[in-house]
Amino acid sequence: NTPDPDSRALLRALQGCGRYMDKDGAQALMSHMRRSGLQPAHAHYNAFLMCANPRAEGRAALETMRSKGIAIDEETIRCALHGAVRHHAWGHFGEYLQWLDDYGLAPDPMFYSRLLTLLAETHNLPPAEHVLQDARKRGLAMDAVMFSAMLSLNHAHRRFARVVELYDEFVQGPIALTVKTFSAAIHALQGSARTRDAERIFSDIPRFRLPVQVPHYTALMNVYASAGRLDQVLRVFDDIEREHRLPDLVTFVTILRA
Question: Residue 49: how many CB atoms within 10 A of its CB?
Answer without folding.
Answer: 28
